[in-house]
Amino acid sequence: MDLKIYYEKIRETEAELPEPCVLVSRATENGGKAGVRMEVPRAIGAKMIVDGNARAATEEEAQAFREEQAEAKAEADQLAAASRMQVTVIPSSELRNLRSPRSRE
């Protein structure tokens, strides 16, 4: 393989890709799964496309991927907020003391 041609293909492919780009993986001989979507920088995306490990996602695939990522982030944020919630348990007698008018005087 001529390295000049290889790197020229990578540069040409990189110029055509948006930043960041969404790729869809292809099945590879070394066990790569087909159909896995990922968002990568243009340089990495171009190399993966030229190497035959992935293809550029269609606009619909990219939009669906970004929506899934937004939903996953919202869910993770909600779980993180729930884990930070603090609860204090006090006996009912102390609660009555807090509510009684004598405690306000």
Structural category is mainly alpha
Indicate the low-confidence ranges by residue numbers.
none
Average pLDDT reading: 86
How much is the radius of gyration in Å? 27 Å
**Order of neighbouring strands in the sheet with most strands:** 2-1-3
Number of strands: 3
Span between termini: 89 Å
Largest sheet: 3 strands, antiparallel
Shape: rod-shaped
Helix content: 55-70%
Q: How many H/I helical runs?
A: 4
Strand content: 5-15%
SSE order, as H and E?
Answer: HEEHEHH
Structure commentary:
The protein has 105 residues and is mainly alpha-helical. The chain has helices spanning 3-16, 42-51, 59-84, 92-99, and strands at residues 21-25, 37-40, 54-56. Strands 2-1-3 form a three-stranded antiparallel β-sheet, with helices on both faces. The mean pLDDT is 86.
